């Protein structure tokens, strides 16, 4: 779920067109899991080809990315590497939730509760290595770059922004800020009308730009102290301390100065893992400079061969996505441009 800093972070709404020409680093795993959650049939079953292979992730990354390109956004997908050891408990907990959700999904279907079944199904998505490889291959056919991170994808995305190889990192949570991303874009993938969870209420959702430097100034903290606030609240690497939310965490960090000093208080024995180790993951993440970002040409024929011939996609729909890709690139003088960064 990521660190919950929402109550402390100011943000600026922008129109999708306001991101025209911006290179944005996107956590690929988060996107793929989202596609496996939302791109499903009425009973909650995933989209599959004639051989029974899941295609929801390919549908999501192709059509959503085509929309990005049409809007002038230049996405770079970042793929996770090996997670830190401290993330093991989080990973295991997520697996348990998915396994339980799958059981409840099948049970609801058996009882004829279709709407309830779909809700459980959305929590049961599993991403495997073959799906990741398929997504990477599709991006190559589309002429779009991707980067393999040695560790956390969000850490590598933040690193790209720090180096000036991307304008912002895109995510729904605020972990990118703890990893030091100067600029974060939220709601990039959920722009438009959106149904609130568990309610028959729809709201308009716009992209939000969050800038790290003004936030630190507004809160009166350093980057290290922002990380300490996150550790107190809870991250993907630790549960945090029960009863401590963003505002209380901010007060504690301002009062004591650092997580090291807070550990000397009565709160010191309430951490389930070493908070200094968690702090180090954010302040000194496992990232690499060994990458090249190349913008190639869209290859319509290879896209059709991959999606239509191999995975049974509708040629008409795929062509509409290709049209968006080629139109978006042509309008920005990228149709025949190869540009290297990093």
Which characteristics define this entry?
single chain, 342 residues, alpha/beta, seven-stranded mixed beta sheet, two-stranded antiparallel sheet, 14 helices
Helix content: 40-55%
Q: DSSP helix count?
A: 14
> What is the general shape?
globular
The major pleated sheet works out as: 7 strands, mixed
Provide mean pLDDT, rounded: 87
Characterise the protein shown here.
This protein is of the alpha/beta class. The chain contains 14 helices and eleven strands. It has helices at 28-38, 56-70, 88-110, 114-121, 129-141, 153-163, 175-178, 212-219, 223-233, 246-256, 259-262, 275-283, 300-310, 315-331, and strands spanning 12-13, 23-27, 74-79, 146-148, 168-170, 183-186, 192-195, 202-205, 208-211, 293-294, 340-341. It has a seven-stranded mixed beta sheet with strand order 1-9-6-5-2-3-4, with helices on both faces. Strands 7-8 form a two-stranded antiparallel sheet. Strands 10-11 form a two-stranded antiparallel sheet. α2 runs parallel beside α5 (129-141), α9 (223-233) packs across α10 and α13 packs antiparallel against α14 (315-331). The longest helix has 23 residues, at 88-110. Residues 334-342 have low confidence and may be disordered.
